[in-house]
Amino acid sequence: MPVIIRHRGICDYQEVWDEMIAFTRNRGADTDDEIWLLQHRPVYTQGTSSYEFPEAQAEANGTVIPVIHADRGGQITYHGPGQLIAYLLMDIKRLKTGPKSFVNQLEQLVIDFLDCYGICAHRKAGAPGVYVADEKIAALGLRIFRGCCYHGLSINIDMDLSPYQWINPCGHVGLGITQLKHHVKNISFDQARREFAKILPDLFLHPPISMK
Fold first, then answer.
1. CA 75, CA 53: separation in Å to the nearest integer?
2. Which residues are catalytic?
3. What CATH number is attached to the domain comprising 142?
4. What is the pLDDT of residues 155-186, one digit of tens each?
5. Number of domains present in the structure of the chain
6. 192 to each of 23, 41, 171, 184, 199, how far by Cα in Å?
7. Residue span of the structural domain in which 155 resides
């Protein structure tokens, strides 16, 4: 089956989440898989394992950042402009893989992407995501519904990292956070987005048929 890649710009988290749920629940056996590449306006999201913020919002550096309890796996993280989001609306059963294997594939995709810039990245046992030295550069969280997944991964490219100071990222106290621009001079978000889109076909046995 073909894969459609959509470049969606800066999006509201709740709106995109609602769209992912609708897409996944309404898809059929012949529905094409899609990958949505985008950025979010500032937001904290909590996965199903996270209880860090009981209140509805948090204040970071004088700015109120909403906190949304999402249905993805994992704990709390931050999304904001300059972070590349890849939402994977995939029939993993049709791909003949399982959740753990698919997460490993996604981590490897990010590792390969960073290798294109000469950055040596790696996994950590028991802590999903991708790391450069001891600092996290990419986070992952999926939801599986009837053999199909949604949500996906985020890669820090060129963003304000200060909101991470107000949480325990992914539930880890004192976890360092890094981004691509700390390791590559003169990198732009759009440049990184285009490069990441180029390697997305490496995740599959077939290339995407549509770039929109």
1. 11
2. 170
3. 3.30.930.10
4. 999 999 999 988 877 777 778 999 999 999 99
5. 1
6. 27, 18, 27, 11, 11
7. 3-211
